[in-house]
Amino acid sequence: MTDSIVIIDFGSQYTQLIARRVRELQVYSEIFPWDADFSGMSALRPKGWILSGGPNSVYDDNAPQLQPAILESGLPILGVCYGMQALTYALHGEVAGSEKREYGSAQIEVDAENPLLPQGSQSVWMSHGDRIESMPPGFQALARSASSPYAAMGNLSRKWFGVQFHPEVHHTPGGREILRRFVHEICGCASDWTPQGIIESSVQQIRSKAGSERVIVAASGGVDSSVAAALVHRAIGDRLVAVFVDTGLLRKNEAMQVETAFTRNLGHSLVVVNAGDEMFSALKGVTDPEKKRRIIGEKFIRIFENEAKKAGNPRFLVQGTIYPDVVESSSHSNSQSQTIKTHHNVGGLPGTMQFELIEPLRLLFKDEVRLVGETLGLPHEMVWRQPFPGPGLAVRCLGEVTPERVERLRAADEIYTSELIAAGWLHSQETRDHLPLAQAFAVLLPVHSVGVMGDRRTYQETVALRAVTSEDFMTADWAPLPHDLLARVSSRIINEVAGVNRVVYDITSKPPATIEWE
Ligand code: XMP
């Protein structure tokens, strides 16, 4: 069993980030709602607890509380923000309600020698309402800030700590070191959560679940389904049947890439269904976004069902569910969480299909999925591929979806994407101080405008460019792409793509806009 840290979720928007940061330190961490059954958490045999922040005050009616069994476990604890307040409250210290939130960067001073925080001053990110008025017995102050004498506190003999700030966010530059000290030095966790280790244990689990049965996967070329398929293939070889539906709505070269990657890298053949003509005739005359989605989704399901039947209706289906999906769907019991997520199931399969699921990525974050994919030898373009909606280019081709307009969009998108890759804006790994683009694509608008090219009047369509940064796709910021890059993309699109005479850049965040235009 690998060493692990359990994260108790008090409803903070940053809880998943804490789990990711711990895993970046190669220590397995798992999130549990604050009121989860203790036996489930202790079954992991964690070496320490991290208590997340949360939107409540400890004095609220039904405020989430620290389970006494966590204190009784004798393991190290790190309380973050609300987690610190819940720890204080549980240990009979005093938490003071305050009308005013402290939000933003602050400077802390650490004087006391202690195993959690390096001495000296550092800048941290604060986001809290209540604060600690008096510490519980046995605790000492470890750091102070202008607004609080207890920006951090610790009971050194019990290895219980609380920090008022958020060590998990980018804006606390020394946060990684604080978490490293906690998980490695204070809890004594080994760095054993590695891609190789993840692959070995998941191959074993898949083998024992699948037995000698056959397994089917809908290969979309997306990162998650490809890595999931690669893991299952490593576990059971040719008993995996991969079905790839080419909807005719994919990006340039994508169908070919998926085919090559599956046949070459997974070393087995793929059932390719060319559904382009069928899709375009079903979409003829349709302009309503929801109707497009429905038509494509239904067709996809019918085709997949048909292929499953031809393959003798395998018992298992591989799904690329990843950890954030699991946490989000389990946290609706947790009424503290204020996140609202829209689910996109188009291009997915209905729950009514008769399969048992194999979900090898259920416990992995996206960045871990990518590392596993790379370790399994999947091609770079596949591992670093951006999310792509199930209905494909149909929802980026506003107005009617015709083969000619999709081809126009595809050509513009290819120019944009290749320039972004060349300039280093796409396909690179996230670092702590620079968020790369989460998604960037072209959109074709059914808007004609007047232009002039070579002294001739033109009256043609418009391409909109979209590029966003985002941690989780629930909110996103438009990216400040350099002007020279935008200029190059614009001029290439106008010169190389027939039928387009105007290019615009989308400067809307989500909310109020969504990432896709439809
Ligand atoms: P929005 O446009 O809602 O998109 O901000 C958030 C993320 O979801 C992707 N998306 C979809 N994915 N089927 C999918 O599989 C869909 O119908 C769909 N619509 C949007 C979008 O690309 C972005 O990553």
Question: What are its keywords?
Answer:
518 residues, alpha/beta, Rossmann fold, GMP Synthetase, Chain A, domain 3, 3 domains, nine-stranded mixed sheet, five-stranded parallel sheet, 33% helix, 24% strand, binds xanthosine-5'-monophosphate
What does this structure look like?
It contains 15 helices and 20 strands. The chain has 518 residues and is α/β, with parallel strands linked by helices. It has three domains: 4-186, Class I glutamine amidotransferase (GATase) domain (Rossmann fold, 3-Layer(aba) Sandwich), CATH 3.40.50; 195-383, 3-Layer(aba) Sandwich (Rossmann fold), CATH 3.40.50; 396-505, GMP Synthetase, Chain A, domain 3. Helix 6 packs across helix 7. The protein is globular, with a radius of gyration of 26 Å. Bound molecules: xanthosine-5'-monophosphate. Xanthosine-5'-monophosphate binds next to loops.
How would you sum up the major sheet? 9 strands, mixed
Average pLDDT confidence is 91
Bound molecules: xanthosine-5'-monophosphate
Side-by-side strand order of the widest sheet: 2-1-3-4-11-10-9-6-7
Cα distance spanning the termini:
45 Å
Which structural class should the secondary elements be placed in?
A: alpha/beta
CATH class type of the largest domain: Alpha Beta
Which percent range fits the helix content? Answer: 25-40%
What gross morphology would you assign? globular
Tally of domains: 3
- Looking at the overall shape, the CATH architecture of the largest domain is 3-Layer(aba) Sandwich
| Strand segment tally | 20
What is the alpha-carbon Rg in Å?
A: 26 Å
* Tally of individual helices: 15
CATH topology of the largest domain: Rossmann fold
Sequence stretches where pLDDT stays below 50 over 5 or more residues = 332-347, 430-434
Provide the CATH superfamily of the largest domain. HUPs
Strand proportion, as a percent range, falls in 15-25%
